[in-house]
Amino acid sequence: MSTLNPAADLSSHAHDHHGHHEIGFVSKYVFSTDHKMIGKQFLFTTLFMLLVGGSLALGVRFQLAWPWRAMPVVSQAAELIGGPNFIAEGGQISPEFYTMLFTMHASVMIFLVIIPILAGAFGNFLIPLMIGADDMAFPVLNMLSYWFMWPAIACFGLSFTVGGLNAAPAQGWTSYPVLSAIVDSAPGAGDAQTWWLMGLTFVGVSSMMGSVNYMTTIINMRAPGMTLFRMPLTIWSMFITAILQAFALPVLTAAGFMLLTERTLGFNFFVPGGLVVNNGDPTVGGGQPLLWQHLFWFYSHPAVYIMLLPAMGMVSDMLACVVRKPIFGYKPMVYSMAAIAGLGFIVWGHHMFTSGMNPALGMTFMISTMMIALPSAVKVFNWIGTIWGGKVTFNTVTLNCVAFVSMFIVGGLSGIFMAAVPVDIYFHDTYFIVAHFHYVLFGATLFGCFGAIQFWFPKMWGRMMSERLGKAHFFLTFIGFNGTFFPMHLLGIAGFPRRYADPYIHPYMEHLMPMNQFITICAVIMGVAQFLLIGNFVASIFIGKKAGRNPWNANGLEWTAPSPPGHGNFDIAPVVYRGPYEYSSPLVDGRDYLMQSERLDPKPPIKGDEDEPASDSGSDS
Amino acid sequence: MKRSISIILLCAALPLVGCDSSRAPSFQLSEQSLTLSPFAQEKVQGELSAGFGSPAELVVWPELEVDFGNFGGTIGKVGPRPGTIRVADEGLGSQSNLAGDDLLDTLRGAAVVISKTSAVPESGAEGESTSTEAESNTAGNVYRVASYDLETRLLSVVDETGQPAKLDASEGDTVQVLGSTLQTGRNLYLRHCMHCHGVGGDGAGPTAQYFRVKPRDYRQGVIKFTSTKASVPRPSRDDLFRIVKLGVPGTYMPSFMLLPDDEVKLIVEYVRWLAMRGEMERKLNAWLFTSYSQAAVDESENRAELESEFETEWAEDSSDYIERFGNDLKLDWQDADKPESVVNPTVPRTPSSPESIARGRKFFLSKDAKCASCHGETGRGNGPSTEAFNDLPGMPPGTKSDKPGLFDNWGNIVKPRNLTTGVFRGGRRPIDIFRRIHSGIKGTPMQAFGTTLKEDQIWDVVNYVLSIPFEDKQGGH
Amino acid sequence: MVNKFWPIFFMFWPILAIVSFVIAPSMDWWFPGPAMSPLGVQIDNLFYLILVIVAVTFVGTHVALGFALWRGVDNKNTKAWFSHGSHNLEVLWSIAPAGVLMFISLYQLDVWMEFRVKTHFPEGTTPVAEVTARQFEWRIRYPAPGKKLMTTPQPDDLYTVNDLHVPFGRPVSIRLRAMDVQHSFFIPELRVKQDAVPGTVIPVWFEASALGEYDLLCAELCGWGHYKMRGRVFAENETGFEQYLKTLQAEQNFDGVTQPDHSGAQIAEYGIEDSQ
User: Which residues in B lie closer than 8 A to residue C273 (C-beta atoms)?
Assistant: First the structure.
């Protein structure tokens, strides 16, 4: 419900409390409280961390393709950071180094890339613009949510340097005790793990701040006329994601603190008694390893929806725009997202089917997991329905969005295998799972992000990104991505376990090395292709073709603001008359879009016409 | 845009900076060697390279008691290109059971020796130094196999710089590829063992620093759990085989039960070779340290004079010393494999009756035996010695350690075995426990009772030890 | 024709995906052999059922997507189809998948119960060994020949490492424990997996349908040696199994003098010499 009185707020920032004085460089560009700047800061940071996480993944791939060969860059990096540099070993990495590679790849990608880019970068930039507000409800809190990412990055970075690359966190991003609880159980379970947990805590704080902000902004600061069911799906997705964050994150933070105190203060939440690790004294114990798994996955399952829903929302908006059609089934789309989020709270046990928890729980979680496939399927059908009958122009945005739909279908369908518990017995901790989550996280979310970058870049910087480079980037990334991750389904079926530094000592997997080499080569292609995106992004900020307010002829409120929007966003506060998907509306002639805040004079009824006057609010279906 | 593309491509090329596949593992000088003066270090390094080479380029020193393995063949034709030989009918490796890729892996990089004699000399044959023959036949160069085509039997040989070798050979000469077996062992070692035991077998690989119980440092040629007598310092091949196969329970040394037997034997050969290299380095250090350590150089008044003194001594005596060291190595290791070196009881184990156990227990607690002083009266490994300042092993008697507790030869603190867990690192069979008591545990304060106790007395103690109930409900593993 | 490049591009990948799945079994990119246990056969059947359903859905959605893209490129009208959705379609494509998913859920319930619920273990399942996972090996404790496996170690229990022998053709169970951190007992060919949780003892049952050697792997990250935990499960007939235990017992009591009898046992092939 909009609480703003349309008459009162005629202008945006002109009468705000700090007047027109110039703010300094630091306040404008560094500790900015302007949601647009904060969104851009998040975007730069996460794109950089994407390269870091990707490099770690390339290390994993190298080892799997050419096990125990001299790994590039590692010795040089170790010289800088410290710890074993593998030079005497001829560059051959040690097994614990490999465990660090996949742990930090996942940690960086999940906590420093995907979650911040969706909520932090796009959420921040788009929410006020799309709902017609001049900024977030809590601008200073917003600024803090960005700046709390840097302690997190510092903590993750420190975890590499205390003890060296060989002793960086290596217990998996899932950090299961007892491995992560007992300091001696692995080289990476020392101080590095403590820093990792601290980094996790900071990321959690940053996310919480953001989620509180988004919920409040969306509930309270919508422009007049923007009812809940006239909000773009991006906003719905950000809203639902914020609710997920708010309810799930405290559990992770609590678990993180429990593990921290276990490691540093000798508490015993997760470690049972009598264990002898690394010839140490038997543990005092009293804890249960499964407790961590429950607490961790209670957050981390909603987290995967946090990592998906905003991309779903954005893709819906982008698709409707590029095919010039309303979203097919707007309300079902909203309800599906809500169902995914709600159900997302009761499926966490599907990560734990083989964990030794009560088998009865296996059955209940299986049912809820099957149920959650349904709203996702409904959304996929609705996206196809959106494209059906549309006018399709294949630009970079379209390509990335269609890739989103296609890859999400694959990812969602592969999840059904794991939902069936007996099949999960076989697939758990094999590469089938790796294939599944990379299809949803990279194939769906990240392609959605690539499309979103291209789509909203003009609004961010007033210039267009290069179409050619965008298409080239998409082409190479798509090929590389499918070449990398599709064969992993087959590897999983072949029983190829996860997290193995040298699977080929098991004879039944020796013949899978050529496939792994193929995967690695595709991964390298994919990695190199990202430089096209980075180059396109950076160069276009300076030399991109200038863009007007609405280069895409889109309907959302953000496209009424200047490109880029100034302080306060809108020239005049917008008033909303309809939903955001009135493309190809018969109410206007000569163009195929009708913006949300465009006021149409009602047509006078034709004498004798029994038809009802055309309705303006065609968004409810 | 073009400029940005080239910048992008430059950035993409950055990761390739690290690509350097020519890097190979290399032996480092030990900490002991690094205390020598630089000129002495250089000679030690040179000697080790000449006798052992590097992991990537092994040198076969036939003197040593190591199964280097060789393949031989008769030269059918030399050429057509430089450095190529066509081996006569049977081809290389025809006498082995290796074929295809396995054979090629074994041959690649191994040393090549061409001899003008018609018979293929056996590796390690007494009194023959094939390396001398190699010198005379190939003008002192070390040649290595670059490739071998199984079908055409064409062998390509390169010299140290990687260029095709200038071969002094003709039809009918014999070509021998030396060290092929050792190479395969090396490949297995690098894959399975190096990250803990280190490139040179010093027990200090990248992973080792995180262990409480350190991996074995082979360079002293001493292994703790052997079947050989106390007077025989080295382990037999069977001992090493057993440790690799079964692991060392209670430590991070895993059991490689599922590696095929022949692979384990190859690893054992390589480990022995590493031990010999380490021992050679120690012997050289022991010889040179007194007069030519860095400390001695710092203290001397005329460094140049000391250096020339060293050069003279080296020129005169080094070949004798090295020959003697090599001979010592050979004899020591040969000794360990002799059947008479193995501790084999002549009487079967006394049945484990209460009386036998009582006798064993009495001995265990007696003052002469002093078992309880380390192992504790209840066998928990917490005897008084674990907190006292004991003699340092390997030092003159009476040299006390400045830290309390018991130490092994490698300077690590050791805890006497807790006999209530049912975990025996050297094996839980009665014969294993018999051997521990009979010849002690080499390199540790566990002494040998073989000379003081009769066999049936030892069996009594064995019976007692095996009868100690597990304190932990889950003991035994 | 240039216009159609992208629709063709997007349809090329699903075709490639299907082709790769079709040729996968013949290229050996498939299960490590047929399931060698009755439960495994049921798991495989469930897998194939879901595969068919998923394949149909995959093909169906991508045909629809491809068709929509293909026609969309050709659409030269000034405006697209102005539709906000279809209530009937929404109902249809909510109920149909819900039905399919419910069917899959109910179909697999009893397989799961059979595997994990102790009261549903097959009749006559006997514990043969206690398997304790440790960094980085599988330590196995058998009862002495002719005796039953007790929950606490007995003086005459037999110990070995990485080599689990079981009789084939009947359901057997193991007591799965962990000595230090979490591990997971994974036999791919029998389709068995169960995490070993420190502080607990979990009974895991399985039945090997045929004589043979099956790989045993660890499937839960346990440290740097996670990949090294290679074991094997050797399923043999009853007499072979009994003989194995007897040989193990003799080996374990070897005193260096009395030679153990190695006939028919599997230890000899490991070359552990009697003379030492």
Answer: 238
Contact A108, A49 (CB under 8 A): yes
pLDDT at position C271 is 38
Please give the residue of chain A at the shortest CA–CA distance from B1: A539
- The answer to whether B252 faces chain C, any CB pair under 8 Å, is yes
Which of A329, A429, A478 is facing C219, going by the closest CB pair?
A429
Cα A224-A226-A232 angle, rounded to 5 deg: 150
DSSP A112-174: IIIHIIIIIIIIHHHHHHHHT-SS-S-HHHHHHHHHTHHHHHHHHHHHHHSS-GGGS--STTT
Residue C172 near residue C89 (C-beta atoms within 8 A): no
Contact residues for A36 (Cβ-Cβ < 8 A; gap 6+): A124, A125, A129, A460, A564, A565, A569
Nearest CA-CA partner of C251 in B431, A274, B271: B431
CA separation for the pair C31, C188 (Å, rounded): 8
Nearest chain C Cα to B265, which residue? C271
Out of 3.30.1030.10, 1.10.4200.10, 2.60.40.420, 2.60.40.10, select the CATH number for domain C122-254: 2.60.40.420
Cross-chain Cβ contact C32/A392 below 8 Å: no
User: Is residue C134 within 8 angstroms of chain A, CB to CB?
Assistant: no
Enclosing domain of residue A597: 551-621
Q: Is B475's CB within 8 Å of C139's CB?
A: no
Q: Residue A99's domain is classified under what CATH number?
A: 1.20.210.10
In angstroms, the separation between the Cα of residue A304 and the nearest Cα of chain C is: 21
ipTM (interface predicted TM): 0.93
Q: Does B119 touch chain A if contact means CB atoms closer than 8 Å?
A: no
Cross-chain Cβ contact C132/B227 below 8 Å: no
Q: What is the phi/psi pair of residue B115, to 5°?
A: -125, 150
Helices and strands in chain C, H and E counts: 4, 10
Q: Return phi, psi of residue B352, to 5°.
A: -80, 70
Residue A225 in domain: yes
Residue C176 and residue C201 in contact, taking contact as beta carbons nearer than 8 Å: yes
Nearest CA in chain A to B194: A89
State the 10-residue block means of pLDDT for chain A, 621 residues long. Answer: 43 47 80 93 96 96 94 84 83 93 96 96 96 94 95 94 87 94 91 95 95 96 94 97 95 95 93 91 91 96 96 97 95 97 96 92 93 96 95 95 97 95 95 97 96 97 95 97 97 96 94 96 96 95 94 94 91 92 90 90 65 47 39
pLDDT of residue B216: 94
pLDDT at B131 over 60: no
Q: Has residue A116 been placed in a domain?
A: yes
Q: Give the C-alpha separation, B185 to B180, whole Å.
A: 9
Q: Which residues contact B293 (CB under 8 A, 6 or more apart)?
A: B35, B36, B37, B40
Q: Scanning every residue of chain C, which has its alpha carbon at the shortest distance from the alpha carbon of B192?
A: C228
Domain membership of residue A105 (yes or no) is: yes
Local structure of residue A440 (DSSP, 8 states): I
In a domain, A489, yes or no: no
Report how far residue B433's alpha carbon sits from residue C254's, in angstroms, rounded to the nearest whole number: 11
Q: Nearest to residue B221, comparing CAs of B205, B208, B236?
A: B236
Count of domains forming chain A? 2
CATH 2.60.40.420 occupies which residues in chain C? 122-254
Record: contact A502-B191, CB cut-off 8 A: yes
Residue C263 CA: distances (Å) to CA of C165, C244, C270: 16, 9, 14
d(CA B307, CA B301): 12
Model confidence, pTM: 0.91
Sign of CA dihedral A431, A436, A437, A442: positive
Q: Which chains touch C (3 or more CB pairs under 8 A)?
A: A, B
Interface test with A, best of C111, C220, C232 (most A CBs within 10 A): C220
